[in-house]
Each structure stands twice: as structure tokens, then as C-alpha cells.
Amino acid sequence: MLAFSLCSLHIPIAHKTQTPLKKSMFLKSQIHSTLPLIRGNTSKFKLFTALSPSPLTESSSSNLEVDDEPEVETGSEKFDWYSQWYPLMPICDLDKRAPHAKKVMGIDVVIWWDRNESAWQVFDDACPHRLAPLSEGRIDQWGRLQCVYHGWCFNGSGDCKFIPQAPPEGPPIHTSKKACVAAYPSTVQNDILWFWPNTDPQYKDIITRKTPPFIPEIDDPSFTSFMGNRDIPYGYEVLVENLMDPSHVPYAHYGLTPDPKGNNADREGGTPLDFSVEELDINGFTANQGWNKSKFMPPSIFYLYSEPDKLASSVETKKSSVQKKFSMIFICIPVSPGKSRLIWCFPRNFGVWADKIVPRWILHMGQNLILDSDLYLLHVEVILFIIYRSVIPLIK
């Protein structure tokens, strides 16, 4: 399936004007010389802005029918990594009975289900009292997030509603702003929980001004919508580049992908690549590879889709009044230097019955076999690259 991918594009972007920042643990990656250094300073609110934007920037696809077009930058070569929606997890992999710890862009957050608001909430994963991880806590009988250390309880807005140690007849110390936990804007779209990595109150209603990229196939009931996710022990930039590289597929995934046909020059089926970039700007890229097209929507979504008339043979097409459509969606999440997370979804409008009877764990096994066949290779390549970058300058 990964044969739908196309080569990685790296476009250097201009420097971003600064605003006050909170110190971020998402430091400069040592993997790729074109990646930015992301750092920050402290401020009253947790406001994150990338100092240097990413080199991965390009445009959009006419095939992707977007109902609510996300707000995008135009006429600019600046990309602010911290002014974007980031996916956290598929909803199907979240348990409403307990909080979950996740990290994105070096930011530790806790995800929990607020039954009082019927919504998923995303907080800083640190209790304001003693900085204990709230993800180790629990949901109390009133549907509040309770800290595991001293039992402080918080509502969906991050307000402290109860401090067990405070005398009931004393001053309401739980109402102090210092007792509140920072809450991030969040939303559910395409069955995925997204968050905006900025707790400044000015971004509380950011969803009304800018939305995550929308992929209609995921919400279309006529398509399958199986999703999977996995944490990857190599960096975001390596993950994205690997997914966009089709030339490694017949070799690294030998025996896991369909056997090539009609190539006498090479047993595995390696061939010259023929593709063209149709659009390329700060908002991503659209490319044509002949038998499939692709779209990158920074910072997270790499979207590939087959052309309906080329997916099935002419005989099969005549037998069905419905055009067969298939797409591959890879959602790449920067976790921290040397770590990333991948959410994948392969919507199709044919053979839908199969996903209704095949257990999800079997589909997980197939995709993880492909990821595993890349894992060791990329690990070795990254280690050797770091050594090369570190040792060669000393020799010179």
C-alpha cells in the first residue's frame, strides 16, 4: 500500500517573528540539517510559537473536497509550528473511564472525558499544586479530573472545584487562579481528537477562526473508516520522509506488498519515478504520480488517493455503477526529538463488508509488519547520520 507515496520535498522557510513563549522541551533535532530549532521563553500564559518554521511546506488538491476550508496563510513564506491544530489520538483508542498521557511537540498533556460537558478535554499534564501528572489520576464520581497525589479536582475548564485539605468553613482557596490547570482548545474531527498547543485565552475560540484539515472520506458512511496508531522511535522528519518515498517500498517491504508485474530489469520491481508537483506553497503541496495523486497538508497530513478509473479494470468498472475509490491517509505527529506518532486510515468505498467481519487486530498486524520492516533500517540510518555529522567536522 505504501507504493502510493512520493518523494520528500524540503523547502526552506523564512524566519518567524516572535511573541513571548513558554519554555518548550521540543529541542532542535539532530537528525536533519534543514530542520528548525524550536525553543522558547517563559510568559504568563503558555503561548508556544516556533522560532524557525519547518522546511516541509507545499499546497492543495482539487480531489480533496473540503466543506469547511481551514484558514491558511497566503502570500507568505512563514510557517508557525505552534499556530496549528495537532492530532492527538483516534477517538476509538481513547477510554472515557480514565485520563490519558500524551506528548506532542514536546508538550505533555492529559486527555480526559468530561461527562458534564460531553466533551474530551486536553490539559497540561501537571497539577498546579505539586506538579504531579494528572494523567496518573482518575475521574471522580462527579465527573471531575482528580489529581492522584492530593485529590484536587478540576472541571472541564481547568478550574479547581475541590481541595480536600481546605477547611469547608474557611476561605474558598480553590477559586484562586493559581489553583487552576491550563486547558488547551480541542475538537473532534474525522473521529480524531485535535488540540491547539496554546493556552492563552485569546485562542479559546480558535476553532471558529481556523479548523483542522477536513478529510471527507473518513466521515463518509459509504467508506470504510478503520484507523490505527502507533508511537514510532524515530523523529517526525524521518517518518514523513519515509512515507513520501515510494522507491524503498519493493525492497524494504519485500513480500509484504503486491508483487510487481512486467518488470524484467529488476526482480523486486524498482522503476524510475514519474511524477509532477502541481501546486507548492506554504500550505502544502499537490502532486501527480500518474496512477495516483497526493497532497501534503502541513504539519501532519499526507493524503494519497487513486484515480477511480485507474483503480479498477474497465471490465470491473462496467459491472458496477459506483466508481471505486481508495485513499491512504497518514497523519504524522511530532512527539519529541527522535520520537513521533503515526495515525493511519485507508478509506475505500468497495469491499466495505470485509472490515465489518475482520477483527481490527488483524488489520493492525498487517500495517505493523510494514512499519516494522522500516524500523531497524531507519534506526541504523539515523544513528550513522548523527555519528557522521558529529565526527566528520572533527576530522576536517
TrEMBL record:
Gene3D superfamilies for the chain: Naphthalene 1,2-dioxygenase Alpha Subunit, Chain A, domain 1, Rieske [2Fe-2S] iron-sulphur domain
GO cellular component: chloroplast; membrane
Keywords recorded for this protein, A-Z: 2Fe-2S, Chloroplast, Iron, Iron-sulfur, Membrane, Metal-binding, Oxidoreductase, Plastid, Transit peptide, Transmembrane, Transmembrane helix
A Pfam family matched in the record: PaO
Record-level Gene Ontology MF annotations: 2 iron, 2 sulfur cluster binding; chlorophyllide a oxygenase activity; metal ion binding
Domain named Rieske: residues: 85-195
Main location: membrane
Keyword Cytoplasm assigned: no
Compartments, record wording: Membrane; Plastid, Chloroplast
PANTHER family: CHOLESTEROL 7-DESATURASE NVD, IRON-SULFUR DOMAIN CONTAINING PROTEIN
Official protein name in the record: Chlorophyllide A oxygenase
Lineage of origin: Eukaryota, Viridiplantae, Streptophyta, Embryophyta, Tracheophyta
Gene giving rise to this polypeptide: 11426578
